[in-house]
Amino acid sequence: MFAEAQAYLHMDEEWMWRFYLMDSQGRVIVISHRAYFTRDEALAALREFQLNLARAETG
Known about the structure:
Layout: E1 6-11, E2 17-22, E3 28-31, H1 39-58
Antiparallel strand pairs: 1-2, 2-3
InterPro entries: YegP-like_sf
Protein name: DUF1508 domain-containing protein
């Protein structure tokens, strides 16, 4: 499920960055609970999230 997800960054209404994942149907399946001050922080958090997901999926 998550392996096919597309990742995106989004700046919210408070000028904070969040990441989210969408499935192949275009539905949002994950939105970061935390907001980040910079785009680089959000990208680093997204990469860490994806690594943890990959580890969890492979067992």
